[in-house]
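debug: dumping io for the single-chain case to check the tokenizer round-trip. Nothing else runs in this session.
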Amino acid sequence: MHKWLQRVSNINISIKTLTLLGFSLVALPLVFAFLYSAKQVNNLSQQGTSAIFNVAELVERNRKVSHVQSRLERFAGQYAVLKDDDLLDSFKQQCQLLESTLSSSFNSYKDKALIKVIQSYLWQLKKIRDLLAKPHALLQLEDVQVEFRTLAKLNQQLALRSNQLVNNQAHKMMRSAARIEQTMFLSLYTIPITLIIAVIFITLIIQPLKRLQSQIKRLEQGNFKQPITLRGSTEMVEIAEALELMRCRLHELELQKSSFIRHISHELKTPLAAIREGTELIYDNSVGELNQAQQEITDIIRLSVSRLQMLIEDLLDFNIVLDSTSLQDTQFVDINKLVEECLELRRLDINRKKLTVQTQINSVALQCNSKQLNVVVDNLLSNAIKFSPSNGVIKIKASNEEDRLVFSMTDQGPGIPTTAFDDVFTAFYQGPTKHNSPIKSSGLGLTIVKELLMRLNGNITINSDTASPSFTQFVIQLPLTRQVSQRQMESRK
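debug: decoded output
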């Protein structure tokens, strides 16, 4: 299913067409179910209306037949006793009315059993009419009453059959209602069908966006080497082509920047080494004694040369950020070992200010680019050393929390104002320092840290207080792709 969706999502269809097609396919089952259900309900409504009229008509006709039959029986009985021809004429009129009602009304139902009862009823009426046509001397009231009892039984059969027809109509209505209920229940299956269709088309629209998002994420992390390719809707392909042009341009600019920084750094370091060596010889009085003014000028030159060397080193570190080709390799990095290496490199600076370094590092390793992480830790350590007072304490902690590495470095420096938390990560930003402080930097250290952490999918936050006792704490969080046990780390050493 996933492969089929991926194959379909690669078809060159515009998002507009895909959206309209998806909406149509989602709406089609619902519209079909609605129309079919409406038709069934309409049929049931018509059947109900017809059944109500039929029942009312049957009841009314049965009542009319019973009423006319009672009058016939009264006229016939009176005629048999009184022998009055007017009574016979009234009987014949009522008899014609009854025959007309039975023939025209009940025959419309086309029910064989009902028609058979009506025929028997009509035949019995004819028999009573023939009986009344006999001479007066032969006509007896008992004979008339016997025939009307037979007619009453036929009337009961007629009413019984009419009730059965009413019941049949009711059962027919119940069956129709049950069928409609079943149809309505089955129509509910259109809901999951439409949901499945909606999910399919949402996936077809979102999948290219997710693939495009992952490729944009690579650009954000500085990976400009891998081409951006995308198959799918017309709009997605156009966006991918625009991003590919942008990637090529960014890659070209990155290579130019990296090449420029490498060359300029190399060109600067060569004469700088000669200047520094010559300055040290003069400062050490190797070429003769210096007076106080000359000694001060030489000291200024030494500080300036050291600052220039630091700027060049920061530029080289910043070049690591710009050069994405050097940032793709990953390996398991032992945090404890990495911190020890950074401390060893800064040992002279730590001893010069008589600083105490307290480490609390659990046995944690993560998979990332060791060169990047080394630059991050070294820049934070260098920053802590610069701003720590003499005899100060630097605290370094590292532990894993759930699936992330939490690394913190705390110094007892003057602190950072809350308003400057965002500014310190800006390139070439120089924060306020104490009056006559010899600390000067390039303003690139924390910028490098921020950029590298972004490429490592990590983040950095600041906790600081400028009030006494002041402190500054940088907290780093990095994803742990895999936690390594102490035994595994020892086996790698």
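debug: round-trip ok. The beta strands are 331-334, 356-361, 365-368, 393-401, 404-411, 459-465, 471-479.
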